[in-house]
Design a protein that fits this description.
The structure is a single chain. With 403 residues, this protein is of the alpha/beta class. It has 15 helices and twelve strands. It is 39% helix and 15% strand. It has a seven-stranded mixed sheet with strand order 1-7-6-5-4-2-3, with helices on both faces. Helix 4 packs across helix 13. It is globular, with a radius of gyration of 21 Å. The protein binds pyridoxal-5'-phosphate (PLP). Pyridoxal-5'-phosphate binds next to helix 3. The site of pyridoxal-5'-phosphate has 14 residues, from helix 3.
Length: 403
């Protein structure tokens, strides 16, 4: 934009325009996709990426690519941060954050419930790197204060958390962290910047699996870390230039195209999820529904304070989950029985509690009791898409009638 500062514009306008500029040569209004892996270099450019800082030139697409840069600028603006770095998947973003900012002897406090991939990485791989991991229920602030040690470098939050949709008070956690000199990272995949902007609440890093609500169409894997310019420069040097988990420019283009409609889609996700959660809550075969937008959610007040949009994620459970899984897989037609979430299409997947507790979370008895209060013996993690809620309820009604 020539005269307007896009940072001063509203979120819906930023989702369309931030980071994107018409092509200077052709005037093309949509962003170009630059798939080239290399660029004609000036003779001053050195062969080592360590020289890259001295030059603003494009040299090699793992170091810097114009299409990825556009997406990174858009994400930084949407999260009201200085900068961002995108990766080939959400997991690549998460592991890159840990590898760049944690050292042997550091303590990482991680939410006891996080996306399974992040949990398993923290439980299995980080201890081998000499990092001390403590899993804490971050919705319980006294537990956080009791666990934090002088060597704590990072507190890792997920809100709402995958899969149980429990929330963490991000502003309260950042206050505890700041008092101890630790940084706060928030995986905000379930919320999206339309609902919550963690940097505005004091967090240092925001993480997104761009595969989910941000891209929004279930057709492009991607991930991002968003934060200060200095931290993002370091993350790029360590984990893109040297680590190499770069995103394809084509995926960046698809994800940018998805983000343009994020505000509209989040409104539709919320509208449909509200209708479906109310329908399920009143269904005689449904034992429990967890959705931050329902007044029955144990943290509904926090949800109203921290989320401008309740998003499209909910869980529900019925008496015999494994039997229901077989019937749902057979009879649901609009919902796809599939993992992933945040797509325009509705998805659901069964999460058996004992399996998750033994393979993924490894909780204390008290933490496991908190998990069971949300999930019972197992529940359906449900990602409500942007279809008509009447059709979604009718699809569920037919499958539930077979139970
Ligand atoms: N964070 C959350 C909250 C997720 O739900 C997921 C994937 O389901 C990830 C991170 C990992 O993202 P990706 O699948 O893009 O690697």
């Amino acid at each position: 934009m020539k005269n307007l500062d896009v940072r001063q514009l509203k979120l819906k306008t930023q989702a369309v325009h931030a980071g994107e500029t018409p092509d200077e040569k052709t005037g093309a209004s949509s962003p170009n996709i630059v798939m080239s892996s290399t660029y004609i270099a000036s003779p001053e450019v050195g062969f080592s990426a360590e020289n890259e800082e001295q030059s603003n030139e494009y040299v090699y697409s793992r170091w810097k690519n114009p299409t990825l840069e556009q997406l990174e600028n858009k994400l930084a603006i949407l999260e009201n941060a200085e900068a961002s770095v995108v990766f080939g998947s959400g997991m690549a973003a998460i592991t890159s954050l840990f590898v760049t900012f944690l050292r042997p002897g550091d303590q990482l406090i991680m939410s006891d419930i996080t996306y399974a991939g992040a949990s398993e990485y923290a439980n299995e791989i980080l201890p081998n790197m000499g990092i001390e991991i403590d899993r804490v229920n971050l919705s319980d602030l006294p537990s956080l204060s009791a666990a934090i040690k002088p060597n704590c470098k990072m507190i890792y939050v997920e809100s709402p958390c995958n899969p149980i949709c429990r929330l963490t008070d991000i502003a309260a956690v950042t206050q505890v962290a700041k008092a101890h000199g630790a940084k706060v990272a928030v995986d905000s995949t379930f919320a999206s910047p339309i609902a919550t902007q963690p940097i505005n609440l004091g967090a240092d890093f925001v993480i997104h699996s761009l595969t989910k609500f941000m891209g929004g169409h279930g057709d492009a894997l991607g991930g991002a870390v968003i934060g200060s310019q200095d931290d993002m420069d370091e993350l790029r040097r360590v984990m893109l230039v040297h680590g190499g988990g770069v995103m394809s420019p084509f995926n960046a283009w698809l994800i940018m195209r998805g983000i343009a409609t994020l505000p509209l889609r989040m409104r539709a996700h919320q509208e449909a999820a509200t209708a479906v959660s109310q329908y399920l809550e009143n269904h005689p075969k449904v034992e429990q529904v967890v959705y931050p937008g329902l007044s029955s959610h144990p943290q509904h007040d926090l949800a109203k304070q921290q989320m401008r949009n309740f998003s499209g994620m909910l869980t529900f459970r019925v008496k015999d989950g494994p039997r229901a899984t077989r019937l749902f897989a057979e009879y649901l037609e609009i919902f796809h029985y599939a993992v992933s979430l945040g797509h325009h299409r509705s998805l659901l997947f069964y999460m058996p509690t004992d399996d998750l507790l033994s393979t993924t979370f490894k909780l204390t008895e008290r933490q496991a009791a908190s998990y069971r209060a949300y999930a019972g013996d197992g529940m359906f993690r449900t990602s409500i898409g942007i279809e008509d809620p009447d059709d979604l309820c009718a699809d569920l009604e037919f499958a539930l009638s077979k139970l």
